[in-house]
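Researcher: I'd like a candidate sequence for this fold, 463 residues long. If you have to choose between options at a position, lean toward the conservative one.
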């Protein structure tokens, strides 16, 4: 792992330059790196990551961002526009996720810095609400094993016991009865995914809602990935069961604007069925010498740029824009899934949506990945069992991409069959499939993490 990529082309800064470099020189360096790195996804061969892929849209959002990048929306008296835009982003998201069907409470929401932020705010809200209303002091949270690790991270940070429930291996979704069995008097909430990151499958949210209501606990639906796409898929007639606030028992939903909301990275929305639950995680400090302090979220200062860009994205696309993008994404996903099922040695995992995962019972499926990497594909990997997934985004809907996938996959399967008795060169790391991993995977991960920590905390100093 290179500490300083581009070190053979650009000067390395190990300390502040004694004299600042020219803006033109710096922008030229930035432009060179950006344009070269964009090529990794512009072909449409990268799973997920780049959800929009439209440079004109990025330029439009960058223009909106530029006008508010310097603004700290902590001071709302100086920037009332932030209150308007944030309220509208939350309101639009609530409406999209079925909040209009809620008649017994007042739905509300928060904007956060991403999916992990939204999930963390939800876990914190459940912990505080359960303490306030039920006196829970040793809280636990129940999630399917397939639910995002952000729940584990939040539980670790907030002192919540995390209880993982195995999923049905054929469906890749959780059984409500198994979740029910894991609940006790200290359970603050249960979790369902719509859809899960690994397999693109949707947990049985209606049944989980019934469990939550019967046991008197919250139900958080992780729609970080599907929140801005599944509603339009349902409208288009895709086979997607209800997962939003129209389901009794659903008490919060996370949905990432920076994924299929087509906003810049660093924004998400967490929605609550009742503002009382949202308000439970507010922080107050009234006796500080600097003044009375109140924080509606974990972040303090925030740039108005991301907020403005998110609002601009949603307002410019509108319902029809999102619907048309969804139509192309679901159609492309169906075409690419058909390419997988044409090969007897490959097997789709569960009943996927716009994201699909496949494995093999005949060979290590990472042989397929080894070959696909040579053709420029960047697929994401799973383990237990080894599998590969592709999250279809707008770049895959470009003409010719699905056909290229079909052709390259056929060659990859032939390669895998030929090399089935050899160890594969790649394996699974979240966010991608990297090379160099063998049976010593845990040790390898530890080395990577140690290397990253060294680079972050102990960068070499200037001589």
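Model: Candidate sequence:
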């Amino acid at each position: 792992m290179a500490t300083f990529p581009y070190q053979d082309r650009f000067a390395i800064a190990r300390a502040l330059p004694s004299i600042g470099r020219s803006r033109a020189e710096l922008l030229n360096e930035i432009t060179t790196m950006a344009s070269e790195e964009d090529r990794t996804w512009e072909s449409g061969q990268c799973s997920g990551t780049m959800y929009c892929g439209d440079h004109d849209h990025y330029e439009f959002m960058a223009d909106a961002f530029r006008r508010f990048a310097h603004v700290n929306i902590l001071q709302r008296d100086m920037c009332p526009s932030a209150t308007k835009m944030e309220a509208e982003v939350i309101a639009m998201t609530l409406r999209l996720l079925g909040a209009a069907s809620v008649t017994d409470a007042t739905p509300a929401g928060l904007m956060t810095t991403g999916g992990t932020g939204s999930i963390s705010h939800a876990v914190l809200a459940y912990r505080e609400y359960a303490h306030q209303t039920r006196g829970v002091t040793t809280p636990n949270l129940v999630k399917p094993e397939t639910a995002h690790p952000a729940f584990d991270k939040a539980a670790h940070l907030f002192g919540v016991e995390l209880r993982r429930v195995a999923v049905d291996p054929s469906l890749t979704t959780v059984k409500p009865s198994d979740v029910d069995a894991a609940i006790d008097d200290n359970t603050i909430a249960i979790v369902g995914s719509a859809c899960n990151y690994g397999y693109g499958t949707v947990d049985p949210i209606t049944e989980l809602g019934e469990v939550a209501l019967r046991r008197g606990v919250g139900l958080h639906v992780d729609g970080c990935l599907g929140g801005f796409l599944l509603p339009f898929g349902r409208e288009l007639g895709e086979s997607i069961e209800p997962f939003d606030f129209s389901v009794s028992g659903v008490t919060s939903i996370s949905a990432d604007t920076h994924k299929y909301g087509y906003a810049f990275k660093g924004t998400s929305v967490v929605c609550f069925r009742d503002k009382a639950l949202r308000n439970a995680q507010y922080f107050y400090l009234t006796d500080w010498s600097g003044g009375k302090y109140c924080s509606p979220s974990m972040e303090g200062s925030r740039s108005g740029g991301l907020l403005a860009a998110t609002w601009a994205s949603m307002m410019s696309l509108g319902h029809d824009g999102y619907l048309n993008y969804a139509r192309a994404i679901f159609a492309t996903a169906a075409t690419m899934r058909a390419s997988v099922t044409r090969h007897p040695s490959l097997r789709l995992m569960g009943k996927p949506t716009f994201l699909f995962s496949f494995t093999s019972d005949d060979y290590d499926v990472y042989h397929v990945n080894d070959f696909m990497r040579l053709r420029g594909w960047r697929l994401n990997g799973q383990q237990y069992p080894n599998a590969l997934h592709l999250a279809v985004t707008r770049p895959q809907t470009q003409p010719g991409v699905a056909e290229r996938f079909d052709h390259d996959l056929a060659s990859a399967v032939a390669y895998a069959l030929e090399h089935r008795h050899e160890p594969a060169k790649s394996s699974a790391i979240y966010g991608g499939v990297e090379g160099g991993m063998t049976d010593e995977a845990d040790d390898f991960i530890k080395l990577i993490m140690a290397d990253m920590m060294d680079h972050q905390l102990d960068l070499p100093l200037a001589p």
